[in-house]
Amino acid sequence: MRIAAATSLVLTTLVGSVASQAPAPAVANAAAVIAVEREFAADGATRGWAASFRRYHAPDAIVLQPDPIKAEVTLAKVDGDGANTLLWRPSYAGIARSGDFGFTTGPVQIRGQDGVRSHYFTIWRKQADGSWKWIFDVGCDVSDLNPLPADADVPMLPVAAQGTGSAKSAIDAVGAIEDAALVDARGAVGRLLASLSADARVNRVGERPTAGQPAASDLMRKDGDVTFKSLMRESSSSGDLVFTLGEARDQVEGKERLRYSARVWQWRPEGWRLVFDELVPRRVPPA
């Protein structure tokens, strides 16, 4: 009996020692998507924006031209590599805990011109070969008089403590929230405000980019009576970070206006929270 007990004690001690020495699981870090965004921007500044967009987009990547369309279709219409005067850099980023899905956003400028032209927003997904490719890219003409300096550390969305376990469960859950907004008595915007995170970021045309729930809420309340329709939902494999693209319709001077919504949702202990929200006008290119 004592021999068995002693053996059990030794084994328990050894197992505990090995467990205490085992390395903790690696935690994803948004530095990965920040790095690929910087590579993307540097390539565009050297070779031209079109060449860079072709190199870094996934086969199913979507852009707005003026409506959602595959990037490869619209890029095929661009002659050559495009100008190398388009400059951009990340000023905020986030990544899923699985390390396979993330986003960046930041100022866009024109070489030789003062001021920020807009803020880009890009969704990135890690491919089967380990490379990062973007699956959605858009710009929003915000007013940014004091952009984050190029040499500053880029703020990051805190990585989720856990996820729902699968992309499908995450997409279904976020879809239910967005669909419920259509019939909520508070209106679609009011329903979304109820899900806004404390550190949410919101972009609107002509407005200063906001960070933090109070300022983000004030900006979203200006949206008024908007209805939304989902067009695309993508999630990380860990089910903690979801991107949604949709139509946003309202009335302006008696006429219907169509814009597009781009959002990022994150799973948190208190439930799904909206951490990034942007409304982009439907821009019809000149003939």
Structure keywords:
287 residues, Nuclear Transport Factor 2, Chain: A, alpha+beta, 7 helices, six-stranded mixed beta sheet, globular
Task: Describe the structure in brief.
Helix content is 28%, strand content 36%. By secondary structure, the chain is of the alpha+beta class. It folds into two domains: 31-140, Nuclear Transport Factor 2, Chain: A (Roll); 167-281, Nuclear Transport Factor 2, Chain: A (Roll).
SSE string, helices as H and strands as E: HHHEEHEEEEEHHEEHEEEE
Number of domains: 2
How much of the sequence lies in strands comes to: 35-45%
Shape: globular
The largest pleated sheet is described as: 7 strands, mixed
Stated plainly, the CATH topology of the largest domain is called: Nuclear Transport Factor 2, Chain: A
Radius of gyration: 22 Å
Low-confidence stretches: 1-24
The CATH architecture term of the largest domain is Roll
Strand count? 13
* Cα separation of the termini: 90 Å
Please give the share of residues in helix: 25-40%
CATH class of the largest domain: Alpha Beta
Describe the structure.
The structure is a single chain. The chain is of the alpha+beta class and 287 residues long. The chain has 2 domains: 31-140, Roll (Nuclear Transport Factor 2, Chain: A); 167-281, Nuclear Transport Factor 2, Chain: A. It has helices spanning 2-21, 31-47, 49-56, 71-75, 167-180, 187-194, 213-221, and strands at residues 57-64, 68-70, 86-88, 92-95, 101-110, 118-126, 132-140, 196-203, 210-211, 227-235, 241-252, 255-268, 271-281. The strands form 2 sheets. Strands 1, 2, 3, 4, 5, 6 and 7 form a 7-stranded mixed beta sheet that branches. Helix 2 packs antiparallel against helix 3 (49-56). The longest helix is centred in the first third of the chain and has 20 residues, at 2-21. The radius of gyration is 22 Å and the shape is globular.
